[in-house]
Design a protein that fits this description.
Length: about 375
Amino acid sequence: MKRNFLFIPIVLFLLSCSEKKQEADIPNEPAEENMVVLTPEQYKNAGIDTGSLMQKSISSLLKVSGKIDVPPQSLVSVSVPMGGYLKHSNLLPGMHVNKGDVLAVLEDVQYIQLQQDYLTLKAQLALNKNEYNRQKELNESKASSDKVYEQAKANYESQLIAAKAAEEKLRLIGINPNTLTADNISKSIRIYAPISGYVSAVNVNIGKYVNPNDVLFELINPDDIHLALSVFEKDVDKLFIGQKLVAYTNTHPEKRYDCDIILISRNLSEQNAVEVHCHFDRYDKSLLPGMFMNAEIELNAQNATVLPSDAVVRYGNKQYVFISKGNYAFEMIEVATGSEEEAYTAVSIPDQLANQSFVIKGAYNLLMALKNKSED
């Protein structure tokens, strides 16, 4: 009897092991929620077509961002050396001006005083010059003392220095001393454009008093305006001078601007990024310094495993493709996608699935059928 009792546990143990072995031998079947089976009629209506993975040379796209920048020599702040009241200006932001154009007219009594001082000094200088020449001749003939001659010389040179200083002050406020006479003394001065470009800012209005340290206008020379992009260190070696890219703003992403890379910085920021400077092929006056932009840089083409872009569907922020399992059955698997070019998308597929038949048309219809199945 005891032998029979011992035999029963052994048999049960062997049966248990056999069941586990059989379970282990069963191949892993796809999860039920990722499978969809169609009827022949559904299959026909879905317009499904299958194909294999392909190898194709496809360019990768590097997406970066940055902002519009202007070098110091191309961004000019216009101010007046001497304060005054703004009498006239018709500038508006966005207007184009040429170098030498009149930007504004200012008035102040000090302008009159400066012109008066210069003409008075100029008249006195002529008198001192004649006296200096007379004393020089007298000194050479011993008709006057050296002291008198030296005093005349000092008076003349002091007057000459004062006149030259007043002359430069007039030039500083835009008045030509060579054409200034007592008959054309003016209470106003003109502010001229130092460069050709666009008006980016107007900070004054008619009748306002401006101080010497006030910025009246800001001008931009569009020839040197550029886009400064921030590129991470790991991507810098993929870029080169002259490389083409396309930039666009967040507000108008449909409007694209062609650019060329003109400078790649060698200094790393705290975020392990370098600054890449790009020149616009064609300037748009709506692009202002400090404006943020996105950019897409097309890198050199590389061989990649691809599927038609219609084969890839998005669901729940993930990318999926469908594999044909036969008998109108399809399995949805998650994939990692890369660059897209000419209606083909680079995909990362496990090696064990590389020889499978993939749905290249009608994938979206399969996704809808799978979603409807999960909702039932």
